[in-house]
Structures are given as structure tokens and as C-alpha cells.
Amino acid sequence: MERLASSCFILLLSVFTLSDAGSIGVNYGRVANNLPSATKVVQLLKSHGLERVKVYDTDPSVLKALSGSGIKVTVDLPNELLFAAARSKSFALTWVQRNIAACFPSTQIEGIAVGNEVFVDPNNTTLFLIPAMKNIHEALVKYNLNNAIKVSSPIALSALQNSYPSSAGSFRSELVEPVFKPLLAFLRQTGSYLMVNAYPFFAYESNSDVISLDYALFRENPGVVDSGNGLRYFSLFDAQIDAVFAALSALKYDDIKVVVTETGWPSYGDENEKGASMQNAAAYNGNLVRRILTGGGTPLRPKADLTVYMFALFNENKKNGPTSERNYGLFYPNEQKVYDIPFTVEGLKNYHDNRSPVTGDHRVTTPVNGGGGVSKSSSGNTWCVANAEVGKEKLQAALDFACGEGGADCRAIQPGAACYDPNTLAAHASFAFNSYYQKTGRAGGSCYFGAAAYVVTEPPRYGKCEFPTGY
To answer: Which residues cross the membrane (predicted)?
Structure first.
């Protein structure tokens, strides 16, 4: 995990389809002296429907506890072993034999993270990264495990030279030739993916005067338009990930998938750690789960359903750094939830972001590095309108849901009715989406429709049709 004041990201809370959804996992860190046994941890994961876990080593007791559980596992070759793995193919072969081949397939290892945020490692291990990854992969090939287990390495967002606007995303110039080009070529050749650690909390904490809390927490907000490509972003998370996608595109690696190996929000922090609170952590992680499990990619990659690992499973009392570092946990060491959020599609059915009116954020949403924000309307009203950029097929599916299962009042857009004209899909969808949005009391996530809608602060106008503000 690395702190970075990077800017911008989107809200994805589909209410009409769960097809092609993403996947949620959790990071199981153990920098603590009060955690339950690995066996109890596996039971905890299963009881809450968590089917993916990432660990920071290959501890035999942990891998044994995961054996036969059905939980998919990503393990880590720590930074301190990069030099040995890069220098010696025999070391890499032995490491794979002892820690991977000996456990697989009863322990469903699906990925190996070679190092973690190597570019910010004070021990200067960057030069060993690519050789270590190649040697680990060659070892997997020898055990015929290379198709089942992928090799990658998590990068921090500080690996980006530019992250705002998202469309201008690029990797640090000094890393492009020696590291990123061979890394991406390796990922393409082996059918692997880029691991990325993204923390909107760090950006908000450092720039809370210009970044809206609603924008950082996946809540309804006017959004921020990318000046480079015109796409509108509704969350800081999505803007960060699209900056990575843009950086990949700049090097002509559009085909490389991205897995978010860490993201989270602390439930407690020092006095100067703006935004670290129980309520904000619950909102971020709860809305993140909903955004990922209900499908839909990012504005730049609408079909790129993401696998995301939340950080972290437990509060870890032996971690160094500010108070927040010890308070990212979803669970206390006694296995009780720090706050109540779901981790499954089933659990989402009854989930609501319990936003306190006292702590609500109504600041203008303004990008960190400039750009125009969108102010709230003086009346405080908001409306929901269609996003025609998603295409006719997705827009029609969302309209069908709103007027059908969603229970929107669509009588006004029937032939001959007051809002039938203009007879366009975008106009009719906007009316239906807004009807649903207003009927639900403008609840968080009720104006999303799988990225087919967004909130505006000025009354929409389609011909003579007036959009209601409440029911």
C-alpha cells in the first residue's frame, strides 16, 4: 500500500442486470499478534461468501487451511526474495515446488504476485523484478502449472507519471523501457494481467478541499468530465483505474487486463487523516462491493469487469505508520465485523449506504489538477438522465427494466402522452430513469442502471416535457 494524491474515479451500481459481473476478494494480512488461526479464518471467509483471498507470503499453515476450501488464492513472493529468484533459476524452481506445486490443486492457487509495489521499495529491487517473474513462470512451466496459475506484480499508482485527466494516464518515463515494456510483453505472452493497488482514500485525504467525499465514496454526485475524451466520471476509483488503462493504451497494450489487488478505506485514523472514519469506510467498501458485483466496467473500458481485492480482512495491530494503517480491517480479530456490509450479490439485496445527513458532503466536485466542477442546484434537487454513450442496446435494456420490474411511472412516454415527444430512446429513457430515481427517494445507486444513467443538478428539458422532482 502506498499513499498517493492522485485524482479522479466512477460509480457502478447496476440495478437491472447481474450478468458478466466482477469478483470480490480480500487481502489476508497477518501483521498482528492477536489474529484467529488460519483454520478459523477460512471458516470466516466461507461463512461470508468470500471466494477469493490474497496473502502476502506462502505460509504453510495458511495454504494448508485453504486446502479443499474452494477459495481461490493469490500468493506472494516477498520483495526480499526477488534478488534470489532473479539470480537463480534453481531457487525459483525450488520455491515453486515447495510452495506451489506441493499445494496445488487442493489449494486453488490462481496467481503469484512477484513482489509488491516494487518501484517504491526502499531496497531498490526494481531491476530484479522481470528476471524473477520469468524464472518463476519457467518453474511453473516445468510443473505444467503455467496455464492454471498466472504471474504478475502489484504496482502502486505512483508508477504513473500522469493520472489526471484519466485519458492522459501514462507510466513514469524512466520505467517505461527498462520495466514496463518487458513487463507488459511478459503479461501478454503468458496470458496474465496487470495487478494494481488503488486507494482513493489517499487522494481524498490529501486533497479534501477539492475532491468531493461523495465522489470518493461511490455516492451520487454530479460527476467530473474528462477534458481529454469527454467521458463523465462519478467516482475517484474508476478515474484512477482508467488512468492505468490509458497508460496501457499509450504503450499499445490495450489487451492487458487489470486486477485491483488492493483497495480500501480506514475506519479510524489520526486527527490529521481527513476522511478516516467508520461511516466512510463502510460507505466506500459497501458501495465498492455493489459496484463490482453488479457488473459494468469503467467509462474507458465498459466491458472490463474487474476482480477487486479489498484491503484488508483484519485490523492489524503491529503495522507501522499512522493510526489508519492498523484500521483497514473489515473484521476485528475476534471475527466480528467492524461495520456491516455484504460481500455477495444476495447480501446486496438488503444493503443500503447509511449516510448521515450531518456528515454529508455537498462540496463542488472539482478535479485535483483543475477543470470545471459542477455545482449543486440552489434548490438542492437532483434528476436522473440517460447516458446515451453506453449505446442503444444497453439503454433499451435499462429502459425496459425501469418501466417493468423497476416500477417507474412510464405512462407519460406512451404514444400520444405528454412526454412521448421527442420520440427518442434517450428522451424516453431519461424520463423513466428519473421516475425510478425520484420514487426511490434519490437513494444511493438508484441512478446508475449499469452506467446508462447519471445525476444532474439542473431540470432536464425534452420538448415540453417536465421531469418530476419527487413523488
So the answer is: none
Q: What is the CA radius of gyration of the chain?
A: 23
What CATH number should be reported for the domain holding residue 202?
3.20.20.80
The tally of domains found in the chain comes to 2
Residue 131: the pLDDT is 98
| Active site annotation includes 405 | no
H helix intervals, 299-384: 345-348
Q: Give domain status of residue 247, yes or no.
A: yes
Catalytic site residue 335?
no
**pTM attached to this predicted model:** 0.75
Cell of 396: 433499451
C-beta atoms surrounding 40 within 10 Å: 12
Q: Which helix (H) or strand (E) holds 190?
A: helix 181-190
In which element (H, E) is residue 426 found? helix 425-439
Contact 310, 285 (CB under 8 A): yes
Question: Which position has the higher pLDDT, 240 or 471?
Answer: 240
The single residue of 51, 117, 220, 273 carrying the catalytic annotation is: 117
Domain boundary among 305, 332, 348: 348
SS3 17: coil
Whether the bond into 422 is cis, omega within 30 of 0: yes
> Angle between the 392-403 and 425-439 helix axes, to the nearest 10 degrees?
40
Flag whether 93 is in a domain. yes
- Catalytic member of 51, 205, 220, 262: 262
Whole domain around residue 135: which residue ranges? 23-348
Report the DSSP beta bridge partners of residue 365: 374
Burial of 81 (0-12, 13-18, 19+ CB in 10 A): buried
